[in-house]
Specification:
The protein is elongated and about 95 Å long. Helices cover about 65% and strands about 10% of the residues. A hairpin with a 4-residue loop joins strand 2 and strand 3. The chain starts with a helix and ends with a helix. The N terminus is likely disordered. It has a 4-stranded antiparallel β-sheet with strand order 1-2-3-4. The chain is an alpha+beta fold.
């Protein structure tokens, strides 16, 4: 079992396969204890014993409670979220519930049996793992195994995980129940919605910081582009495209002001930390840079060759860049809102 498999395993149903990553043994000699059940989960995965795994984990109820935590966490991360928005998210997540739970359960069984989640075969599994913030966690231990004072057939334990985006440890609380034959079984996750909400809030903060940095980069470079456009206009107003001197001056502006500024903007964008939720927008910005640079090259080439096909190519790239700018502005506004 390699490190990446352990990380992926940890994401399924929070505490279901998460216990497989640690390998902690509590050396309970009695078989009718919660600690023995937790040990048995680990052992069943190491032995690829699906039947034994299901004896100590009620996969259906754990995944069910984990999914509720996932949905609630997405809805409750923002106190200012309107009831209408919450209803829309709730309706959407409930619509996906049944097929996703089927895929998740199949992925769990696949992992226990083979050590592979088969995320390509089980649609939606990889996305759920990423969105819940469990894709890169590190399992650091199981603590606080204790019986419920009010119910002798119920027990609790904390699976301690380190979440890189949170930059701290988080205790995922699991619940065990004693079955009729006295063995204990993991039946649900208690606080998964808190985990998801905290990860989501951190991601939103990161997106906000990214948008602010990009806005600053774009604002500074737009000022430089306007300066280049003014220079370009001044040359055109005093010269003629039929003159070699005018065309040389325009080429200099296009390559040494316009193009260089877009290249510098692209390098600044490359230096940014890009949250996963901002990757689509970031790729749009990079495409704008590349298309604008290509436009500058074509226009400068046309100033030399005076070929109609060359200026046509430049005009197409300029239009493409303008279209991408509109798309990026719309997406950035939606993300900021």
């Amino acid at each position: 079992m390699n490190k990446q498999q352990i990380k992926l395993a940890a994401g399924i149903g929070a505490a279901v396969v998460i216990l497989a990553g640690g390998g902690w043994y509590f050396f309970h000699t009695r078989t009718d204890t919660p600690g023995f059940a937790i040990n048995s989960v680990t052992e069943s995965i190491e032995k690829h014993d699906v039947s034994e795994f299901h004896r100590f984990v009620n996969v259906d109820t754990v995944l069910d409670s984990g999914y509720d935590g996932f949905a609630d966490g997405l809805m409750n991360f923002d106190p200012a979220m309107t009831p209408e928005t919450k209803d829309a998210i709730r309706n959407f997540t409930q619509m996906l519930r049944a097929p996703l739970l089927v895929s998740l359960k199949a992925a769990v069984d696949s992992y226990v049996e083979t050590g592979d989640l088969n995320t390509k075969e089980h649609l939606g599994v990889a996305d759920v793992i990423q969105r819940t913030g469990l894709n890169d966690i590190e399992v650091r231990g199981v603590k606080n195994i204790q019986r419920n004072d009010a119910n002798e057939n119920e027990a609790f334990a904390d699976v301690i995980v380190f979440q890189p985006e949170l930059e701290r440890e988080f205790p995922i609380q699991i619940v065990l129940q004693r079955q009729e034959d006295k063995h204990w079984q993991i039946v649900r996750v208690q606080n998964f919605k808190d985990f998801v909400a905290q990860v989501t809030q951190v991601r939103l903060t990161q997106v906000g910081e990214y948008l602010a940095k990009v806005a600053d980069i774009n604002m500074r470079h737009e000022a430089s582009i306007r300066e280049a456009e003014q220079k370009f206009g001044a040359i055109m107003s005093t010269g003629s495209l039929g003159q070699d001197k005018t065309r040389a001056e325009l080429k200099n502006v296009m390559l040494n002001m316009f193009k260089k500024d877009w290249e510098a903007r692209k390098q600044e964008l490359f230096s940014l930390h890009v949250p996963k939720d901002a990757e689509t927008l970031h790729n749009l910005y990079l495409r704008i840079c590349d298309t604008s640079i290509a436009y500058a090259d074509d226009y400068a080439k046309w100033l030399d060759d005076k070929n109609a096909a060359t200026i046509k190519s430049a005009e197409i790239k300029l239009h493409q860049a303008q279209t991408l700018m509109t798309e990026a502005a719309t997406l950035a506004k939606r993300m900021a809102g």
